[in-house]
Every structure is written in C-alpha cells, then in structure tokens.
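May I ask you to review the protein record following this short note?
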Amino acid sequence: MNLYKCFVERFCPIVDPRSGARSNVSHDRSCIGKLEGWTSILLNLLLGGLKLVFGIISGSLALVADAFHSLSDCATSIVVVVGFTIAGRQPDKQHPFGHGRVEAITTLVISVLLLFAGVEMLRSTVTRFNQPPSVILTPLVIGVVVLSIVLKELLAHFGRWLGRLIDSDALEADAWHHHSDALSSLLVLAAMIMSHFGIRFVDPFMGGVVAIMIGWMAVNILRRAVNTLVGVKPDPQFLEEMLQIIRDHGEVVGVHDIIVNSYGERNIVSFHVEVNRRVTLLESHDIAEQLIFVLQDKMGFTPTIHVDPVDLEDPLILELRKFLNQRLEKLIIPFACHDVRLNDKASSQELSFDLTLPPEICEKEETAAILDSLKEEILDHYTDIKEVRIQVTGFFI
C-alpha cells in the first residue's frame, strides 16, 4: 500500500482539500483515474510487445495470439482515460452541475467490455472441450506467461486500491478486467502443464467457472452504473452525517423533503427544516445560512434550504399531530407526516398536512381509499374542522 501511495503522490499529490494537510483524500479524482488508465495502457503495451517478440522467436502461436489480446486490452484503459478526462472538466453553461456522471458512462462501457470478455472466455472454454489445444511447453513461454500473470494481477490490485480510494466503480471495473486477464493467462499456463502430462479436461472446466464469475461481476457493475445514471437514494452514511449536522442545530425541530442529486463528486441537495413559528423571518434566514455554512465546511456541498414554521404551543395542533401519527401507524407504514397547519376561514377551520409515502404505494387505489377514510375520521372527531387537505408526495427521502 505504501508503494502504491508513493507512486500516486508522484503524479497526483494526495492532500486534504479543506485543510491543505497531506492525507488520504484526493484533491483530483480525474488525475487518479487517468493515472490508472495510462499505467494500464503502458503495461499492456509492454506485455503485448514482449509476448509478440517471444512468441515469434519460440514459434508459439498461442503466445502470439495472447500478445494481440494484451494489446487489445488497451482499449478498455483508453475508455478510462477519456472518461475521467471528460468527468474532470469544470461546470459550463450547458452543464452547470459539472460532468461527473460521465464516470458512470465510463463504468457502463467497461462493464460491457468485461461482460464480452467473460462471454469470450466461455466460448473459448467450449471450444477447448471439443478441440483440446496442442501446446509446446518451453521455459521461455512459461516465463512470459508467468510475467503476464504477475503484472496483470498487480495492475488489478492497483486499480482496485485506487477505485476504493476515490470510490470509483469505473476503476473497480477496470481492475476486474485486469484480474480476468490474469486468470485467463493462469488457465493457459495450467493447460500447458496439464497437457504436457496428458490431462486436458481441467482447463476448460476451470475456464467455465472463471467465465461465469467474470460475467456475474460484470452484470453487478453494469447494474450499479445504470442505477447511478437513473438516480438512486444517497449513501446511508452520507445521509446520516448530514441529518446529524442539521439536527444538532438548536433551533431545528425537524427535517424532511430531502432531495440529493449526485453528479460524480458534486452533490446537489435540498431539504426543508422546521423551526418554531415564533422565530422571525430574519432569524429563520440566519438559521438556514448557518446550516449552509456548516454543511459546506464539513461535507463540501451547498444545500438549498426551505424553512417551515411549526406551532409548538397550540394544544390543538399538538393533539392533531399525535392523532395523525397514531392513525397513520395503523394504516400505512412507512410514512412521514409534517407541515400540520390549521387555516382559519370565515366560519370554520381547514386542516392541511403533508404526507410522504414510499413511491410504489402513492398511486395505488387502496392508498387513496385509506386517505379518504382518514379524512372522514378527522372530520368526525374534530367538529370545528370542516375541510381536510392532504398533500401526498413520494419523491423525497
């Protein structure tokens, strides 16, 4: 790990962007992604050249074929370099939130290439079952194949380490691609040795197992990339840290309607906070500004905050909140009930509140029937209330 760290710091100095002190936090995600890509390209060119030269010298067609396979692997790493170069661009007029999601597209492309590699290995396995290859076992060929396995596995380990350092699925996918190549070369070596002793069935069998494993991993990485592009809930740890900061503010009594849109490293966040209705407009603005400053400092994003006034003293409002929570707990789980308000009209009162439900049940007919039943129960229980308005949403956290 220390060797990796020294190598990375030589090209991409790792510093803490907030304090300026040296740490394990990268200030340039794009630089680290491109470093992994260029390192892979150079080593694949080196490996491809060595295999080609020694394959021609030794007359090994298998080694020559593997040389072109190593050279073709540069394509995946070129995708990494191009992807991280674009993802690292600054926001512009057409892309005000940056280009971070290009990294997810990069992951998508690499995972598809990885899936093709698994399918190709499986096809090769079937061919070996039907037509066991004849191989020439020489020290020179063995040496080159062993070197290929070692370098490819080091590349895989390096890519995985960098992927975890900057939390990048693209680098994890590229690491798996290197790992698949190392396993493929290992199977070639095993086939050579076993064929030398007349044992030929183990190689295609193990090749099939490895191909299925690579395909399974490719599908998982592909699914994560698609989810990132479509949009998923934020990381629970990120959400919990943000909520803890908000709740630690002495004037905040509640938080809801949280929206988090991720653009690579850039997060666009908005939420509602509840404060005592007796707090003035200027004080409410100050509360929002304080939260913005703390979240900028501790988590690195600038949120948009809406302040909701809540009545913490009116006995009827407090009773209504308790009544609603008790009824909703029996009817719909999970839920979030907030913005409970009584609006005075000419001769009656109107109760309104917001209800956040899981998106999958918002549009169900039975949900609408349950809410209608809840409205009737409220009107029967509180005779001064003549109208109930429920705002249902399913798009917030």
User: Anything to note?
Assistant: The chain has three domains: 2-230, 233-306, 314-397. The chain has 13 helices and eight strands.
